[in-house]
Design a protein that fits this description.
Layout lengths: L16 E5 L4 E5 L10 E6 L2 E5 L5 E6 L2 H4 L2 E2 L11 E2 L3 E5 L4 E5 L3 H4 L8 E2 L5 E5 L5 E7 L1 H4 L6 H28 L2
Parallel strand pairs: 6-7
Antiparallel strand pairs: 1-2, 2-5, 3-4, 4-5, 8-9, 9-12, 10-11, 11-12
């Protein structure tokens, strides 16, 4: 599935991709296409949100686990409400004056009356989560968005990152072999 953050909010991104993995009940939202070497490390924002970063600490993606319980929306291919849940409808608002990007997972206008509070801090600085009165995720907020979220990467940069990743994997394999050999 492709999703474009439009120029209307001055945060245009042509390579944003999101996927729902039915077999694991996980949802992944990528700000750029993740190729080998692009994601350097991950950190948990909450028990159900994992954030992936580049080598220079820019956000590449967010992964939400147990989506059927974590989000206020359903992931079925229908616009109907199912079990009291609206369908997935990615809506974003970028506030240029405060540099905040909000990503809603349903029609945010309909949800404003169901929020238990405005937002809740996570374990990661500059990321907050809005939840409904049942504790389900309605929105993820990114403060300092232009600085914290990765910018598009050229194909040349992708190749360089892939090569670094491959070299690091080879070095890791060598060290692993040396450790095993030492104990045999």
């Amino acid at each position: 599935m492709l999703f474009l953050l439009t120029l209307q909010y001055n945060f245009a991104r042509s390579d944003v991709v999101f996927n729902y993995y039915e077999d694991t009940d996980n949802f992944a939202f990528y700000f750029i296409r993740a190729t080998p070497g692009v994601i350097y490390y991950c950190d948990n924002a909450t028990d159900d949100i994992l954030v992936s970063y580049t080598h220079d600490d820019k956000i590449v993606s967010i992964d939400i686990s147990r989506v059927s319980r974590s989000l206020q929306c359903h992931m079925f291919d229908t616009k109907k409400t199912i079990d009291g849940k609206l369908p997935l409808t990615l809506n974003h608002i970028y506030y240029e004056d405060s540099d905040i990007l909000k990503i809603y997972f349903t029609n945010y206008i309909l949800l404003m009356s169901t929020l238990q509070n405005n937002s809740v801090k996570t374990d990661i600085e500059d990321i907050e989560v809005e939840r409904d009165n049942m504790g389900r995720i309605v929105c993820i907020l990114f403060y300092n968005a232009k600085n914290k979220i990765v910018k598009p990467i050229s194909e040349e940069e992708r190749k360089k990152l892939a090569k670094i990743c491959e070299e690091e994997a080879e070095e890791f394999d060598k060290k692993q072999y040396e450790i095993v050999k030492k104990y045999l």
